[in-house]
Design brief:
Number of domains: 2
Order of helices and strands: HHEEEEEH
CATH topology of the largest domain: HU Protein, Chain A
Strand order of the largest sheet: 1-2-5
Number of strands: 5
CATH architecture of the largest domain: Irregular
Radius of gyration: 19 Å
Number of helices: 3
Strand content: 25-35%
């Protein structure tokens, strides 16, 4: 399912206009991204949680030349499925 399919499903289930459904979805995603950019954890009970992992700097290798390269510290978003979602998928 992509974003447009999600908007269409919300439009049908909630009996609202397509633009209203698109606004709701956009507000949801924007607030999720904003919370994660502040380092907050986003948890949707029964479905999943999103959080940011911090990685320290480390020494890696350039795969093409083999020379050592220093990798800068970084933050990456992660997704963790909730118990109920795991059970639904594994039926």
């Amino acid at each position: 399912m992509n974003k447009l399919e999600l908007i269409s499903a919300m439009k049908t289930k909630a009996n609202i206009s397509k633009s209203d459904a698109a606004n709701v979805i956009q507000i949801f995603f924007d607030n999720m991204a904003h919370a994660m950019s502040r380092g907050e954890r986003v948890e949707i009970r029964g479905l999943c949680s999103f959080f940011v992992k911090n990685y320290k700097s480390y020494t890696g290798r350039n795969p093409k030349s083999g020379e050592k390269v220093t990798i800068k510290p970084k933050k990456l978003p992660f997704f963790k499925a909730g118990k109920e979602l795991k059970e639904r998928v594994d039926f």
